[in-house]
Amino acid sequence: MSDIITPVLLCGGSGTRLWPLSRKSYPKQFVPLVGETTLFQSSAKRLSGPAFGAPMVLTNAEFRFIVAEQLIDIGIDPAAILIEPEGRNTAPAVLAAALWQSRIDPDALMLVAPSDHVVPDAAAFRTAVEAGIPAARDGQLVTFGIKPAHPETGYGYLELADRPDDGALRPLALKRFVEKPDRATAERMLDAGTYLWNAGIFLFSARAILDAFRQHCPSLMDPVQSAIDAGKPDLGFFRIDPAGWAEVKDISIDYAVMEKADNLAVVPFAAGWSDLGGWDAVWREATQDPRGVATSGAATAIDCDNTLLRSEDDTLEVVGIGLNNIIAVAMPDAVLVADASRAQDVKQAVSALKSKSARQAEAFPKDHRPWGWFESLVIGQRFQVKRIHVHPGAALSLQSHHHRSEHWIVVEGTAKVTVGDEVTLVGENQSVYIPLGAKHRMENPGKVPMVLIEVQTGSYLGEDDIIRYEDVYARS
């Protein structure tokens, strides 16, 4: 039995309440919402150090290269990246992680945490984790409850069996889980002093949580085990079997196990935490001026109070005049303006945009790929202009198109370009033409990013007009 804790980061959510910055194609955990690093990177760094081993990450196929790239950027080598074929909530994800870990050491401790939370004092959080280790070693399922800072209606709660009297950091008996309350109930719970926010963070051994699943949710065991057994390695990832996973029930870890278990303990944590569940939470975590105004990027506030102004584009200046209790977030392709009291209703905007088939509902302005990213600069009826950024040493697939030709102009770095049987190096201010139907590929052979402008012309310009012949990233 190892004394090292394996962090398990759950990394598959979409975060629609933080639209337009968080979208289905690039959700909030991969965005630097607070500070210079992304929420996912901050979570991975927080769960690192002498007491922690390499992290295990559960994500989906669309995010696998983003996960790997962001971990590389902060110098963390994951123990495993498990790819869920589709989202099935937290219980199957936790069970899959426990089954995976039990192959290595069934008595090893696992710290399961969402990857999109903010914990400003990482050292204090690690101290709280240390306080829970003895209980977890004894076979208990330890959760971490956040001391409420205000009567929050967006969180579930944990009710303690007794009111803590000495403030010591230790596991306490948990009486019950409480659903998200209304405002009046949340105020009574805050006054009672025996309720904590449910952070959805757990510490237990692989053996203990597997025993809990067998006892309280046995119907999950066989399909998840089958999906793991039939899974396959894919480059540096492990793909959980889609056929087996399709039989898995969609259920949260709270409903499946925690609300039924009798070996629970909770460690209170009061050093600051937020799940950034809305723009109002981002405002609370941001640095504010004396009038409660927080700005980010190219944003200017004039005579404003209790307001959040963010610009995510250096060329787009956001100016607020005489605003009070307002959230304004500007992206290159969408702008949100809302009363802060309606922050939880932002997801309604996403639904409204989806109903009118607006691309902005789910697609991020930058499309991230394993080789880099691209963004559309201009779109016409029969043409499109893109900026394409290719990481050093990366290569796009060898491909062709049925409906469009392309013209590439290199503006930074050097591109190695294949067109048919011809391979050439294209430097800055040089260009190359890709005829319709020609097999082609671009690569960055250099040690700095390569940027080019792509002009597409044709009858159809969709991303699905791609025939791949070779791909180093094993995409179909």
Structure description:
- The protein has 476 residues and is an alpha/beta fold.
- It has 3 domains: 6-269, Spore Coat Polysaccharide Biosynthesis Protein SpsA, Chain A (Alpha-Beta Complex), CATH 3.90.550; 285-355, no CATH class; 366-470, Jelly Rolls, CATH 2.60.120.10.
- The protein is 22% helix and 32% strand.
- The chain has a 6-stranded antiparallel β-sheet, with no helix packed on it. The chain has a 5-stranded mixed β-barrel with strand order 5-8-6-7-11.
- Helix 3 packs across helix 7.
- The chain starts with 5 loop residues before the first strand and ends in a 6-residue tail after the last strand.
Describe how the helices and strands are arranged.
Layout: E1 6-10, H1 39-46, E2 56-60, H2 64-73, E3 80-84, H3 90-104, E4 109-114, H4 122-137, E5 141-146, E6 157-160, E7 172-178, H5 183-192, E8 195-205, H6 206-216, H7 221-229, E9 232-234, E10 237-239, H8 242-245, H9 253-258, E11 264-269, H10 279-285, E12 293-296, E13 299-302, E14 307-311, E15 318-321, E16 326-330, E17 335-339, H11 346-355, E18 366-369, E19 372-379, E20 383-390, E21 398-400, E22 404-412, E23 415-419, E24 422-426, E25 431-434, E26 440-443, E27 450-458, E28 467-470
Parallel strand pairs: 1-2, 1-4, 2-3, 3-10, 5-11, 12-14, 13-15, 14-16
Antiparallel strand pairs: 4-8, 5-8, 6-7, 6-8, 7-11, 9-10, 16-17, 18-19, 19-20, 20-27, 21-28, 22-25, 22-27, 23-24, 23-26
